[in-house]
Amino acid sequence: MKRHDRDVAGSDQPSVWRMCSHLGRVAVAFVASAAAARGLLAAAQGLPKPVQEELTRTNHRAETVTLASGSAFALAATAAAVLASPHRRVATAAAIAGLGAGAAGLYDDIVGNRPEQKRYKGFKGHIRALREGRISAGMVKLVSIGGVGLLAGIVLKRKPFDALLMAGVVSGTANLMNLLDLRPGRAIKAGLALGGTSLAGPGAAVAAGAVGAAAALLPEDLGEQTMLGDAGANAMGALLGVAAAANTDRLGMLIALAGLVGLNAASEKVSFTRVIESTPVLHAIDQWGRRPA
Length: 293
Description:
Helix content is 71%, strand content 2%. By secondary structure, the chain is mainly α. It has a two-stranded antiparallel ribbon. Residues 1-7 have low confidence and may be disordered.
């Protein structure tokens, strides 16, 4: 059987060699992604001033930060995932999800920050915009990421229903990571934890790419110099969604999707920040590495 014709989960290599090869690919994806993310973040300092101004935001302390790390993450993590993955369909799905979600997030970062768009936040805000005859930047992003997730699902999963489930997992994870990007390091910590659960199986290289870039960008995020923004948070969630979908079957995707729907729906009613601050364990994790209040 030719290599490119193998099923995602199939292999005829001896188990020891297969394990060594797997660990090597995970390590390569992690290191390459981390190095690329650091390099791209440094290179962002040379961007034209108008571009840097578009990527400047005010954080929860009313201090200025840059969203440049978001694009650095999307490019570095996706490239490493694609190059390190031995499975062509997984690599293709990762490329579609990582770059597509990153581009959609960057669009919302820039267009959604315009004065006329700021009143349309959250899902209810996007619906209100439609009722007023407008299309919010956030709605464009949501639809785009949903389409990206479906296309990735069609590439990776052979059955239509499974492709739909994967689209839900990819877009749901992308949105969840974005909802967590409200305090320094919070989304990255969640991404590291979630990515760690996918470092085995066909999606391991994709997860390692996301984890490597996230770890490399964590110091500046905790130091309140950068934020992932929609571009980085959506790309991270989309890549982790691909990794999870590649590693599980239909039942696993159904369970993951149910949890994601519940969390995303809860965010419309409950403040994640309040829940985290009122839960001692979550609060301690959230505060780790951050500047004092």
